[in-house]
Amino acid sequence: MDLLSYIFFRGGWRLPCFVVQVVDGMCKWVKSGELHKTFAGSLRPDGKGIDFSGFADYSGFDAVKVILKRMSDAMEDRLRLAISKNKIPALMNALDEAKRTLGVDGQLLEQARAALAKLKGK
Questions:
Q1: Which of 103, 40, 44 is nearest to 70 (CA)?
Q2: In angstroms, rounded to a whole number, what is the distance separating the alpha carbons of residues 22 and 16?
Q3: What DSSP element (H or E) covers 116?
Q4: How far apart are CA 76 and CA 101, in angstroms?
Q5: Which residues contact 34 (CB under 8 A, 6 or more apart)?
Q6: Which residues touch 104 (CB under 8 Å, ≥6 apart)?
Q7: C-alpha 120: how far from chain center
Q8: What number of CA atoms fall less than 13 Å from residue 114's CA on the CB side?
Q9: Cβ count near 36 (within 10 Å)
Q10: Pick from 72, 77, 4: which is nearest to 32 by CA?
Q11: pLDDT > 90: what percent of the chain?
Q12: Which tens digits make up the pLDDT trace of 75-117?
């Protein structure tokens, strides 16, 4: 039996025990924990699923946009810090991470690439 289907039995109650591993490529909404934060408070009193009646106007798309904006802002801060440090490893790491982050300012990316090229003597 795998861990995701393992069930504890205690006092007649069945409590699911989940072990979740976050993997690359997982939806950022799930990976960030926002999915859990959004729906965990709306579990039905009997514990059988989520009561979606309070989510009539909810837009998952808008939630994902907020998360992506937060991530791109953090990545831009990291790029600015790497540029200010003026060190090859910091710039290389920040630029590598920026490849995996959507919505990063293109001018800032070019500034970081130019700073790296200057340090490398190109």
A1: 103
A2: 18
A3: helix 106-120
A4: 10
A5: 63, 67
A6: 72, 75, 76, 79, 98
A7: 32
A8: 7
A9: 12
A10: 72
A11: 34
A12: 999 999 999 999 999 999 999 999 888 788 999 999 999 999 9
**Rounded to 10 degrees, what is the CA torsion of 3, 48, 31, 72?**
180
The more confident residue out of 15 and 63 is 63
Model pLDDT, residue 29: 67
Instruction: Quote the CA–CA distance of 14 and 43 in Å, as a whole number.
Output: 15
The residue type at 50 = I
DSSP state of 43: B
Domain boundaries, the chain: 24-120
Sign for the pseudo-dihedral over CA of 91, 97, 100, 102: negative
Q: State how far the Cα of 33 lies from the Cα of 53, in Å rounded to an integer.
A: 22
Residue 78: closest CA among 62, 58, 100, 63: 100
Range list of β-strands (E), 30-112: none
- Tokens 């998360």 -> residue: 67
111: amino acid identity, one letter: Q
Distance, CA of 101 to CA of 96 (rounded, Å):
10
